[in-house]
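Issue: ligand-bound run for zinc ion - logging full I/O for the record.

Environment: standard queue, default settings, no custom constraints.

Inputs:
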Amino acid sequence: MIKPTNKPTFIPKMYCSFFGHDYQVTKKVTYHIKEYTCSHCKKQLTTNSNGYLIELTPKFKEINTILERIHTSRVERLKKKTLASSIY
Ligand SMILES: [Zn+2]
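Outputs:
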């Protein structure tokens, strides 16, 4: 028999209004910018350029995608650089 593994489901939004949101990092965009999702109501937040937490709107999702791409290519380039300098 398969046992349901899901935790008992509260009414998520009610839970959050009582206990506050329980945000967990769902994505690291750059070293400083992360995306968070509330494990109860699935509300999403992101860090903006000033370091404040703001609601993750489609616009910010788009910005984060671009930032992530820039960040990844920068990290990749750094990796190649250190690799090259360790050879010579
Ligand atoms: Zn919540």
